[in-house]
Amino acid sequence: MKIIAGNWKMNGSRATLTAMMGALSEVKTENKVILCVPFTMIDTESSNNVQIGAQDISSHARGAYTGEVSGAMLAEIGTKYVIVGHSERRMYHDETNDIVREKAKMALENGITPIICVGETMEEKRAGKTLDIIEAGVRESVPEDVDGDIIIAYEPRWAIGAGVTPTAEEIATAHKVIADTLSYMGLDGTPILYGASINSENVADIVAIKNVYGVLVGGASLKIDEFVSIINNAN
Ligand code: 13P
């Protein structure tokens, strides 16, 4: 069983989601499918085949934080998953590991599984810092004394939307560092997803890599045929 999560970012519409849910209801798979959609669509009911998730959560429980959505609000409409610390949040909204950890904590307190993203920029990669960034990302973004499920996503920031992926060896090394860090934190067995430029052609090879429990798919998760092929090819 692999986890196939889609991140729609700020794309799609309720109509697109209805069409996607319809197509996914026909898919027979052992894999767990999660679609993380914009806030305006998260009230869409999850089905047996697909769980609906969010893409962000406030680090605050309530109060004067205009524009933010709390964990309790997400839980109230049945949200089961939320992406935290996606590279676009880190890049455009200055989210640090400390903020990401607070967000993950809020998710857990409300019974929502955080999908915690870590990954290096091209500059960090060139400077040979990839493994340090990933290790610190996990150590600092995962809350202490986790009570509930978490998922980690390794998203090399330079490969997102770029149509290129790291080599299988690079992915294996990154996932091993994440697995070892999680083990040190007492979180053995936490699923680790790979995410960046996944498509129906490369998914089978990538999920076959050790310590890769599934994928977090961006652009390709908006295209019905392509996303269905990704789910099928990941078996
Ligand atoms: P792409 O699959 O479009 O590269 O995006 C990856 C991503 O950011 C998933 O969260």
Report what the structure shows.
This protein has 235 residues and is α/β, with parallel strands linked by helices. It has one domain (3-234): Alpha-Beta Barrel (TIM Barrel). 36% of the residues lie in helices and 15% in strands. It has nine helices and eight strands. It has helices spanning 14-24, 71-76, 87-92, 97-109, 122-126, 130-141, 168-184, 203-207, 224-233, and strands spanning 3-7, 32-36, 50-54, 81-84, 113-118, 151-154, 192-194, 214-217. It has an eight-stranded parallel β-barrel with strand order 1-2-3-4-5-6-7-8, surrounded by four helices. β3, α2 and β4 form a beta-alpha-beta unit. α4 packs parallel to α6 and α6 (130-141) runs parallel beside α7. It is globular and about 45 Å long. The termini are close together. Bound molecules: 1,3-dihydroxyacetonephosphate (13P). 1,3-dihydroxyacetonephosphate (13P) binds at residues 7, 86, 155, 160-161, 195-198, 216-220.
What is the secondary structure topology, with strand pairs?
Elements: E1 3-7, H1 14-24, E2 32-36, E3 50-54, H2 71-76, E4 81-84, H3 87-92, H4 97-109, E5 113-118, H5 122-126, H6 130-141, E6 151-154, H7 168-184, E7 192-194, H8 203-207, E8 214-217, H9 224-233
Parallel strand pairs: 1-2, 1-8, 2-3, 3-4, 4-5, 5-6, 6-7, 7-8
Helix pairs in contact: 4-6, 6-7
This protein binds 1,3-dihydroxyacetonephosphate.
Number of helices: 9
CATH topology: TIM Barrel
* Structural category: alpha/beta
Give the integer mean of the pLDDT values: 96
Ligand identities: 1,3-dihydroxyacetonephosphate
Number of domains: 1
CATH class: Alpha Beta
What form results from the Cα inertia axes?
A: globular
Please count the beta strands (DSSP E, at least 2 residues each).
8
Characterize the main sheet: 8 strands, parallel, barrel
Give the uncertain stretches in residue-range form.
none
Q: DSSP strand (E) fraction? A: 15-25%
Strand order, sheet with most strands: 1-2-3-4-5-6-7-8
Q: Note the gap between the termini.
A: 7 Å
